[in-house]
Amino acid sequence: MIPFLDLGAAYRELQAEINAGVARALASGQYIGGPEVEAFEAECATYCGAAHAIGVANGLDALHLVLRAMDVGPGDEVIVPSNTYIATWLAVSQCGATPVPVEPDARTYNIDPALIEAAITPRTKVVLPVHLYGQPADMDPILSIARKHGLRVLEDGAQAHGARYKGQRLGAHGDAVAWSFYPGKNLGAMGDGGAVTTNDAQLADRIRVLRNYGSRVKYVNEVQGYNSRLDPVQAAILRVKLANLDEWNSRRSTIAARYRQGLVGCGMTLPYVPDWAEPVWHLYVVQHPQRDALQKQLGDAGVSTLIHYPIPPHLQLAYSAAGYVPGQFPIAERIANQCLSLPIGPHLGVQDANNVIAACASTAGASTKSNVQ
Ligand SMILES: *Cc1c(COP(=O)(O)O)cnc(C)c1O
């Protein structure tokens, strides 16, 4: 069986360095904050080309804390993609605000800037694009619409560590970027973790206070904050992983290029990359009208696949109170029904990629035949 993503292999490749980092964190005697967290924050900010990085407990908290720091609350609206992982929406809902979905560009899967303006109301406070599947959203038009309407921009970078937009690494195009270090992300910890990067010193300061009980000085609380801190053991692991991120992203690109070449003619819609985008291939997502049958055939052929995501947020039970109906966001719904993520990762060998292509080619032949009968 070709695994979807081999996290054990990721550990084995860096085992000596990771073990040394964990041992250093344990020996430091500081188990909240401390030198590993501070060093990772500095290295993360430098890597992203941002003035500040603030470690937090996970990606959802990173989104939530930025929105809180932007004073998003009840009665406010935040523009989000209709097709994203539900965390993007939940961060808005956790503030008591309302996520306002906007459909993606059907080719890039990222929020369609041309549809944003129509979704803006007097209550809109923030635009929250997601760099989905590792491909940057089209930031320039998003930023100019936001500026025109006096809105702030928070980017969800959970899937796009290292991606570049018009040559510049993601990290501070908008007011802030929220990152997740969930183990399966391109920059993954060995447990939960997250961060915010920003060039806005005031925003950075507010997030630092919010993540730590609303406290700057121990036992003095200026606001009702949260407990959302990046664990030093995870920070030590992330320092090792960050040093290898570019190399591992380039291995993902090699697989994506192989797929791009080998999957032509397999009856799938392949990912589209605008010329200004340098994606990092967190996921390699194809579309197929008979997605479920394709997934089953690939599984039978030994290829693990996943669906990102089978139910768009507006049709989740969690959002039933909002009264959405099927058909309301047809592009998101079509992607949910037709998308399939093929195996990709820094430890997928070229031979594995060739086997995936061969399996796709033979199922394409099989489904053509079964369509004919
Ligand atoms: C993973 C992910 C998150 C949430 O990150 P966690 O660390 O799991 O909380 C948010 N947004 C997107 C797009 C993600 O893929």
Please, could you describe this protein's structure?
The two termini are 30 Å apart. Helix 4 links the parallel strand 2 (77-81) and strand 3 (98-102). With 373 residues, the chain is an alpha/beta fold. It is built from 11 helices and 14 strands. Helix 1 crosses helix 7 (232-243), helix 3 packs across helix 6 (201-210) and helix 8 packs parallel to helix 11. 39% of the residues lie in helices and 14% in strands. The strands form 4 sheets. The protein has a 7-stranded mixed beta sheet, sandwiched between helices. Strands 7-6-12 form a 3-stranded antiparallel beta sheet, with no helix packed on it. Strands 10-11 form a two-stranded antiparallel sheet. The chain binds pyridoxal-5'-phosphate. The site of pyridoxal-5'-phosphate has 15 residues, from helix 3 and helix 4.
Can you lay out the helices and strands and say which pair or pack?
Elements lengths: L6 H21 L7 H14 L3 E5 L2 H11 L7 E5 L5 H8 L3 E5 L21 E4 L11 H10 L3 E5 L7 E2 L2 E2 L6 E5 L13 E5 L2 H10 L4 E3 L2 E2 L10 H12 L1 H18 L14 E2 L5 E4 L3 H10 L29 H9 E4 L7 H23 L1
Parallel strand pairs: 2-3, 2-4, 4-5, 5-8
Antiparallel strand pairs: 1-9, 6-7, 6-12, 8-9, 10-11, 13-14
Bound molecules: pyridoxal-5'-phosphate.
Pyridoxal-5'-phosphate (PLP) binds next to helix 3 and helix 4.
Task: Summarize the structure in short.
With about 375 residues, the chain is an alpha/beta fold. It has eleven helices and 14 strands.
